[in-house]
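Section 4.2 – Deliverable D4.2 (structural model, holo form)

The reporting period included a commitment to supply a predicted holo structure for the target in complex with alpha-L-fucopyranose. Inputs used:
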Amino acid sequence: MSNTYRFIALCTGGFPLLATASANEHPSQDYLWYRQPAIVRPAPLPWTEGESDSGNLPGKDTSDAWESQTLPVGNGRIGGTIFGGNHRERINLNEVSLWSGGPNLPNNGYGYTYGPTAGKNEFGSYQPFGNLYIDFKLKGEATEYSRSLNLKDGIARVSFTDDGVKHERECFVSHPDNVLVYMAKTDTADGLNAKIALTPCHTVTYSKSKTGITMSGKLANGEKFEGQLLIKVQGGTITAKGKSGTVQVNYRNKGDNMEPTFSAANMPYIEVKGAQALCVYVSLATDYKMEYEANWKGADPRATNSAILSKLNKKSYKAVRSAHTKNYKALYNRLRIKLGKTDSAIAALPTDERISAYRNGGQDPELEATIYQYGRYVLICGSRPGNLPVNLQGIWNDKVHAAWACDYHNNINLQMCYWGAEVGNLSECHMPFISFIKAMEKPLTQMTAKHFGSSVKGWTTRISQNPWGGGGWEKWNPPVNAWYALHVWEHYNYTRDKAYLKNIGYPILKNICAFWQTRLKKLGKGGEGLVSNGQKINVADYPELKEIKAGALVSPESWSHEWGPIEDGVMHDQQLIWELFDNTAKAAKELGTDEAWAEKLLSMRDKLVPCRVGKGGYLQEWIIDRDNLPNGGSALSGHRHTSHLIGVFPGTSISMAKTPELAKAAMKSLKLRGCGGDNRRSWTWPWRTALWARFGDTQQAYEMVQNYIRYNVLDNLFGNHPPMQMDGTYGMTGGMSEMLLQSHAGYIHLLPTLPAVWNDGYVKGIRARGNITVDMKWKDGQVIDYKLTTTSPPEEVTVIVNGEKKSVLPTLVQQAKDKAEPTEQKSPETKKKKKKLQP
Ligand code: FUC
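Output (structure tokens):
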């Protein structure tokens, strides 16, 4: 029997028999699996008020089973995290737009009160929707238990045997049908007995029908939400039980430990008896709309849910499932990767044990490739056009008062979530971020004027954002608009979609330029007028300022995240603004517009105080060459942020090819940061992976990948800040991509930093700037086959292959329509060797 799933068709009732995989038949890549469920804690449920034990198999004893053990599914709007309990299943439910708080305008986007009851004048926080609980009436102990998530079809599965009877369950969130789907099935003639409830996190009103439950409510900020369950069975009976009415939710504990409390006595539930299979469809909706002009208000959630479920009611489970896999695979299968073969003893282990083996020094290139693909998986699940972008935790959150409000944090986090989108061939999944930037322009323009004065045009934002146009955290983050602009530009740079650039991208870039055109400060000769921590400094004390010419431009009073003084000319800002002006001028040229304006922009770009190598040979982080910080401590080592290296990555202004002196100094700075203590965060490793890759240091780049897995990955491959934070999970796809292909310096470099562990492998479908898709295969660290394709009129491009520069004309291919369910293609290894592409 092969190492893949067996699918056996069951012809009755539209319920296909679930994929079966025995314990030793788990794929070793693009796949996560475990021998135990995540612990499902006792909960108030309408049929067991006050019960203390759900009788599940023991799970792994971790401090937080939700954040480290559950498996995520999603469709960009609805998210679920599955516990996989054999007796009691719990799925934590999310809808990307359920947010407390509001535009917090009285404080001009300041004030960081969050939590479930925050009103419109407060920042608020991303809220969990509720929980789906299913209690199965089982006879005994589970054997042959396994729980998995298959990245190749976007389905989470649980299987086990109870009292000699096989049980199989699967769960996914369908994008085409817009619902979370849970299916349970057994092969016993007696069938399944189960009780099903939807529990709340906020005060709600319940109603029940013959086959379902509705739970609706309104947050303190007026946002309406509603969840509907629709239950279908094959064989057996369904009965709606319990009461309808309002369930009051209160909260106990403070901060991140805050929890909803309620009595389940007045809740309805569904009882299923003797079914061969049962299926729960969960439709969740709010009345949020990402549109300022509409006052952020859209369709009534009841109308949304009813429309979704009435359409779905007519479909068989089989049809829903196959529409999901077709839609999901059309995105996921665009990129395939092999980084090497893992030793079979390690490859056979469940994911958590593989992580432990890795931490103990084991090599596992297939786990590393899974980490790469997992970043793509969670992007497909968390970020689909038409929805809000992913937040600090993707779209998955079980806390009513989550860390940092589970917000749109922008001094690294939100941006990093999208580092893998373009290069990872998921360009449309980048769009929610860009649409969010666009949707926030108007409220942010007003807040910006209020804060910076009416002479400053355009907009920028505070360090954290909510979906209501509001801001939070203590500081503004002026240069973040230029960082956002990099995403706006790179989407064009990768896709070469002129309609996008004209209608969406370029207007955003112009508004951001307007901010800096009116905000930049002119210094006098030798830096005269420079302000640090609110004080004009005596420039004569700082010889490094001598070279500054009169009229040089600096970003006034900014911050190198998140340390050092508030000062003019912080290098993070200078680099970002340089890229903004440079890219916007390029955009104007691409569109053949605003020639004179773009010229002015370029002349401002050239007046920006440039990066400088300090006396120690480091790239200066501030305009002043500091070894130590004014309030004590080294200004060079230890800090997790690498803000002054942004021109190396994700920016492109500093590179070994174009600015070798600065690049070498940047490398020295990075080395000094170290790898211990505060450097170990979910997001530090992807950034450093990409930085070392851009420096061409294979060993260091690979060590960053290893450190991510060693220190900041949880058993379910969620990133861990701590607490769980998804920036690193997404970012690793971008970071590792830089090791395999670089295209920022005007040419395409294949395998710039390939570690020995990845010596034999392939990537099919990775993207390069210029609307180019690259397939390549390598052996003994050397590229042995590669192919460039494009859907634009092909133009010659320089490619570095095995150290040699070649000129290659990409092959023109048709724009892929909805690729539907691509027939399983053979891997490059098993394919008949193609004629090597002659550059
Ligand atoms: C930034 C980072 C922190 C954390 C927080 C959510 O402020 O500096 O490390 O990731 O965002």
